[in-house]
Design goal:
mainly alpha; about 80% helix
């Protein structure tokens, strides 16, 4: 009776798996080219609509800014434009400094023989701190590489190596060498 119960439970499990597979097959749909084209067209229309909304919002923001600036006095407008230019200049300088720092970091890594892939981990807010990071990182990295090399080379000497070393005097003749070779089964 217990065996029958186990067999029935296993049969139910198999039936549930079959039902799940048939449901999965039912969820998988086959589309015709026309249906795919229609889905793509709908998607493109939605994206175009979203893009147009973004453009309209940008235009509206620009108009509001222009209106606000027109209501200001000439001195206030000049002051705001000056502040805006200052901000853009500061951002440009920061980007340039970052690019120079990255370039210097790459050069330092090459000089130290380290992979440049570590640049993003070692770069700091200025060149001195970056160089300090590189100098701190190098011995740690080299130790880790050495440990991995030793780990991979670590092993036992293969068994069955049969090395023979023979001392040969200059006085030995060719006959003695042949005799030695035949004894050692070299020839």
């Amino acid at each position: 009776m217990a065996e029958e119960l186990q067999v029935n439970e296993q049969t139910e499990d198999v039936n549930q798996v079959d039902d799940q597979e048939s449901e999965a097959d039912a969820e998988l749909k086959t589309f015709t080219e026309e249906q795919v084209n229609k889905l793509i067209a709908n998607r493109l229309a939605r994206e175009k609509k979203n893009h147009e909304k973004e453009i309209e919002q940008a235009i509206e923001d620009t108009k509001k800014e222009a209106k606000r600036l027109s209501e200001l006095s000439k001195e206030e407008r000049d002051s705001e434009e000056h502040d805006k230019l200052k901000q853009e200049l500061a951002e440009s300088k920061a980007r340039l400094a970052r690019m120079e720092l990255e370039s210097d970091t790459i050069e330092n890594l090459k000089e130290e023989g380290l992979p440049i892939e570590f640049k993003s981990f070692l770069i700091a807010e200025n060149a001195e701190n970056t160089l300090e990071n590189i100098n701190l990182f190098k011995p740690i990295f080299l130790d880790a590489v050495q440990a991995e090399v030793e780990k991979r080379l670590k092993g036992r000497t293969p068994k069955g190596s049969n090395t023979v070393t023979a001392k040969v005097d200059k006085k030995d003749t060719q006959a003695k060498m042949a005799e030695y070779a035949s004894k050692q089964r070299i020839i």
